[in-house]
Design goal:
The protein has three domains: 5-61 and 175-271, PAS domain (Beta-Lactamase, 2-Layer Sandwich); 70-167, PAS domain (Beta-Lactamase, 2-Layer Sandwich); 318-396 and 404-657, Helix Hairpins (Orthogonal Bundle). The chain contains 13 helices and twelve strands. The protein has helices spanning 5-69, 73-76, 80-93, 123-131, 173-181, 212-217, 219-230, 265-268, 270-316, 336-395, 400-504, 510-612, 617-657, and strands at residues 97-103, 108-111, 116-118, 135-136, 140-141, 148-158, 161-171, 189-193, 199-201, 233-240, 243-252, 257-264. Strands 1, 2, 3, 4, 5, 6 and 7 form a seven-stranded antiparallel beta sheet that branches. The chain has a five-stranded antiparallel beta sheet with strand order 9-8-12-11-10. The longest helix is centred in the C-terminal third of the chain and has 105 residues, at 400-504. The protein is rod-shaped and about 200 Å long.
Length: 661
């Protein structure tokens, strides 16, 4: 569908980045959601535990106040006037105590508000009388003030004998103040329930002292409400008006009250919306950067390859003036791609020099072959004249002397022509040897280009090996980052446990709680840092995989260039073979010229003998005629070889003229 390597690379990188970032973002979101959920649950349970501890300390404080009254002699004397004088100031000084009271063994009660009645039927009186230990009554409403109250009653002993009860009517307004401050990580609200399920403290005053909240909140909340009363502590999820809510609760052991904290799940998980939006923008930015980087890398690889292909096509069409402007490409001239571009330029320049020399030599060869052909024609003509002269000698001896002089002159001219032809033949041999050397040099250039391309190919493989090693190292780093992340999780868990222990220690552990919170924040920052490092490592591994793929494509292009250079080398081998054949033909022409010169010398010697001994001309004329026939035959061979040489020269000239140099 997409023919361009650059387009394929950009689409592939974009798709991989999208899948990687989308997957990692989804995984990170789910992990963050789980971590936040666990953190919120822990925070809610911790907050409920702190509230329970606060109430426990408050009840313990009030209980000790009443318990310590038993050690006063005035209280143990059971003399009301003395008791009143000690109890009244204490009651007046503590706004949470409505009154202090004394109960005699028969149930008669007097308090600091000068109220007197029988409490023999009250459960707290019966429990103290029976168990001889301090009790907290069930919360109720004060008949004097209408405030929610609880009664703290302790036995009075005198010489180990039970002589009465000292107690206090304690207002529970402080519980309402505590409830207002309760929340889960700044969200929701808190409430306090007694053992019967009545609400002792709630932000809504309409729910105080009753269970009306059950009717208003619905069945889902009612099930959770029942769990508040039956379990000592826990963490619950329920639905209210189509929304999910979460609640944490714990029980105050001494008084059997329940502290419950609840909040909307949407409010608790609101930070995840910010994380999701941030992840989206970060992913979009990362994909955009990845597309830009992949485009730049693809362009830096594809543009030089396209230019090499264009130059190769034009060189194949015969244009040897083409060159690659290496400085126009954003490549390092010392790396494999830069060396390949320079090698292509060197190869084309070598071709240009070879073809130029071959073209020049072909022109000279064509000119020499034409001269040789003309000389051969002249020799043939002279040989025919010699033959005619020999025939005239045989026909008439009277004209022999005059013909011998003419023949001698013709033979001298023939000897000069033959010598000239021999010199030109030698020159043609030298030129042919030069052409052969140039072709061999061109073959060496081509072989050098092949070797250079093979070196580039090996270097490219070495780069791929180094990149794969880089990918292995990045994976080892990823394993180390995972180990650091695990250590950060364990540190976070230890910090959370330390914070819980500090909360249990109360005021004495407050400083240690601050240190534990700092440790937990550092652990969370370490986890975030390792998460970012992990993302970077994944991005590096993705880039390493892409570089390997690009190297493989570059390897294929280099192999194609090597094949083109090898094909060019085969063409030069054919040219070298043709030049070898041409050199053999020239050697044959030179051999025939030498034979012609020998025959010409022999004819000239015969003519001299004829001039010296004319009486023997008749007998020698047959020999001269035979030599003349041989000379004509040799001349015909020279002319034929010259024509073939001219044809080869024209073919060679036509072959090299298709190159533009």
């Amino acid at each position: 569908m997409f023919k361009s390597i650059k387009t394929k690379m950009i689409i592939l990188v974009s798709l991989m980045l999208f899948l990687l970032i989308a997957g990692s973002s989804f995984y990170a979101f789910r992990q963050s959601e789980n971590i936040l959920s666990n953190t919120l649950q822990s925070e809610a349970e911790n907050s409920a535990g702190k509230s329970v501890e606060t109430i426990r300390l408050w009840t313990e404080e009030k209980g000790k106040i009443i318990q310590n009254l038993n050690y006063l002699d005035s209280i143990r004397s059971m003399d009301w006037e003395r008791q009143y004088n000690n109890l009244k100031p204490i009651s007046d000084d503590d706004p949470q105590i409505e009154s202090l009271f004394i109960v005699e063994p028969d149930g008669n009660m007097r308090d600091t508000n000068q109220f007197e009645t029988s409490v023999a039927s009250q459960s707290y009186f019966q429990q103290v009388t029976e168990n001889r230990e301090q009790v907290f009554s069930e919360p109720t409403e004060s008949f004097e003030t209408g405030r929610p109250i609880t009664i703290i009653a302790s036995p009075i002993f005198r010489d180990d004998e039970f002589v009465g009860i000292v107690g206090a009517v304690v207002a529970l307004d402080i519980l309402q103040e505590m409830a207002v401050e309760m929340d889960i990580n700044g969200n929701g609200y808190g409430m306090i329930l007694d053992q019967d399920g009545n609400i002792l403290a709630h932000p809504n005053d309409d729910y105080l002292g009753n269970q009306d909240i059950l009717a208003d909140q619905g069945q889902g909340f009612e099930n959770t409400y029942n769990n508040f009363l039956t379990n000592e502590s826990g963490y619950e999820q329920y639905q209210l008006e189509g929304e999910n809510w979460q609640a944490a609760y714990a029980t105050v052991d001494r008084v059997n009250w329940t502290v419950a904290l609840t909040a909307r799940e949407a409010e608790l998980f609101a930070p995840l919306d910010i994380l999701r939006n941030s992840s989206f923008f970060a992913a979009a930015a990362a994909i955009l950067i990845g597309i830009i980087v992949s485009y730049l890398i693809a362009r830096s690889i594809v543009n030089p390859i396209r230019s090499v292909a264009k130059v190769a096509d034009k060189v194949a069409d015969g244009d040897l003036t083409q060159r690659l402007a290496v400085e126009d490409f954003n490549v390092n001239q010392n790396d494999e791609l830069g060396q390949l571009l320079q090698s292509i330029n060197s190869m084309v320049a070598g071709f240009q020099q070879i073809i130029d020399k071959v073209k020049t030599t072909a022109g000279e060869l064509a000119a020499s072959s034409e001269e040789l052909s003309a000389s051969g024609s002249q020799v043939e003509k002279n040989a025919e004249e010699v033959g005619n002269s020999i025939e005239s000698v045989a026909a008439g001896a009277e004209e022999q002397s005059a013909q011998i002089e003419e023949i001698s002159s013709s033979i001298s001219t023939l000897n000069k022509i033959i010598a000239n032809n021999a010199q030109k033949s030698d020159k043609m041999i030298d030129e042919a040897e030069s052409v052969k050397e140039n072709i061999e040099q061109g073959t060496q250039y081509i072989q050098g280009s092949i070797n250079q391309s093979n070196q580039v190919q090996e270097s490219n493989k070495l780069v791929a090996s180094n990149v794969e090693e880089l990918g292995d190292k990045s994976r080892e780093i990823g394993e180390i980052v995972d180990l650091i992340n695990q250590i950060a999780d364990q540190t976070n868990l230890l910090a959370l446990n330390a914070a819980i222990e500090a909360a249990r220690a109360g005021e004495a552990g407050r400083g240690f709680s601050v240190v534990a919170d700092e440790i937990r924040e550092l652990a969370e920052e370490s986890a975030d840092a390792t998460e970012r490092i992990n993302k970077l490592i994944h991005a590096i591994q993705n880039s390493v995989d892409q570089v390997i793929e690009n190297n493989e494509r570059g390897q294929e292009n280099i192999e194609e260039n090597v094949e083109m250079v090898e094909e060019t080398g085969q063409v030069f081998i054919k040219i070298e073979s043709s030049a070898e054949d041409l050199l053999n033909l020239i050697n044959q022409v030179a051999d025939n010229s030498n034979k012609m010169k020998e025959n010409s010398d022999y004819v000239e010697s015969g003519i001299t003998d004829i001039a010296a001994v004319s009486e023997t001309s008749a007998s020698n004329s047959e020999e001269v005629a035979a030599a003349s026939e041989e000379q004509i035959a040799a001349t015909e061979e020279i002319v034929s070889s010259a024509k073939k040489l001219s044809e080869y020269a024209e073919e060679l000239k036509t072959a090299v003229n298709q190159f533009k140099i």
